[in-house]
Predict the structure.
Amino acid sequence: MHYRDDTEYRAPAWLPGGHLQTIYSSLFIHARPIAYRRERLELPDGDFIDFDRVDGPQNAPKVVLFHGLEGSADSHYARGLMDRVQARGWQGVVAHFRGCSGEDNRLPRAYFAGDSQDIAHILQHLKSQHPAAPLHAVGVSLGGNALLKWLGEQGDAARALVERAAAISAPVDLTAAGKALDRGFNRRVYTARFLKTLKAKALRKAALFPGLLDVPAIAAATTFREFDTLVTAHLHGFRDAEDYWLRVSSKPLLNSIRVPTLVINARNDPFLPAWALPTTDDVAPQVTLDQPAGGGHVAFPSGPFPGNLDWLPRRLMQYFDRHR
């Protein structure tokens, strides 16, 4: 069943447009600092994943967040959600993808938008710690695509681990998103910012594993197409960026999801054109689509100037509550 909760998003009149909403929210609206507890999960392949946790009663509902590209537990959306989780007396976990917790990972592989294998490791570990606690999963941007991909691949089996799920600003069509980010203003602002840290990580990996990567070409890369061909595809078994984008996009799997899942995408998100968003024909009955006209990319600011970021965590917690 597809329904909309009564918390419908409307962008504030003083902050118009997807670019302004995205950039202002990221740079000028700050969530409260969170006192996390760090935990490390050793993986079967010899690598590791770090969790930042907000503790609550052992059998209280647990919310795990999978962050976006180059995100972390310090990202504004992570702190905002964990603040709301903590206030409710629930358990909260921000699961860092490999190399995103402040320490480079050990292996040649890194993380990528279709990393459903690591999603599975994380969810299995968290569920095993407190089997009686309901587990809700939230994926943001890249993490949202990876979570949706895992949900679609697992179908009914995912219900053994996750009670409810949500994806925020997920680039469900990575081909459309990659092309959008490699053009014009997007390329000069968002892509340049992402590539600064992505390239630095890749060059450190190249130093640890001589001959693994083409260092001069990576240093010269200015687009996601170039970086994903030289690094992401090369490290994770894809032919090139186009092959990677096509094969890991979650949109074709949305009709296989069996866990109740909320998918929120602003129609003015600069990272993904509105024409590429899923429709009700693309998704299973368990998937609820929420596609407000405004909100930008993982932003959704609200309130009078200078604004706040309360809408998104409130929307998520309302969704989890409604299904309990």
